[in-house]
TrEMBL record:
InterPro entries: Cell_div_ZapA-like, Cell_div_ZapA-like_sf, Cell_div_ZapA_N. The lineage of its organism: unclassified sequences, metagenomes, ecological metagenomes. This is Z-ring-associated protein ZapA. It holds the Pfam family ZapA. Signal peptide: none annotated. It comes from hydrothermal vent metagenome.
Length: 105
């Protein structure tokens, strides 16, 4: 097993992975952290758990769109960035709605 230190929301986390998988884990962690940074830029200061939840939902949304045949990678960079921003804002609004519903119960 290999040990890797990844960053999420400016904090280091020690993770283990199979030998030879370190670079892939670092690449994936960097991608996730980048998504979280974009959410944090829009939302401001939020708890790590809420940020992680919003990031996970955003990534799930991207996966769902990819499965539906909406390849974001085929768009040019500006269109992709604009779409990502819209997706982030829309996802954040959905999360806030869910959070309000949970808090109300």
């Amino acid at each position: 097993m290999a040990n890797v230190i990844v960053k999420f929301n400016n904090q280091d986390y020690h993770l283990a992975c199979k030998n030879g998988e370190s670079e892939r884990l670092l690449k994936l962690a960097d991608y996730v952290n980048g998504k979280a940074d974009k959410i944090a830029d829009v939302m401001g200061s939020v708890s790590d758990i809420r940020l992680l939840l919003m990031t996970a939902i955003l990534l799930a949304d991207e996966l769902d769109e990819a499965r539906d045949g909406k390849p974001m990678a085929l768009k040019d960079d500006q269109d992709q960035t604009a779409q990502m921003e819209k997706t982030i804002v829309s996802t954040i609004k959905r999360i806030e709605d869910i959070t309000r519903e949970v808090d109300a119960t």
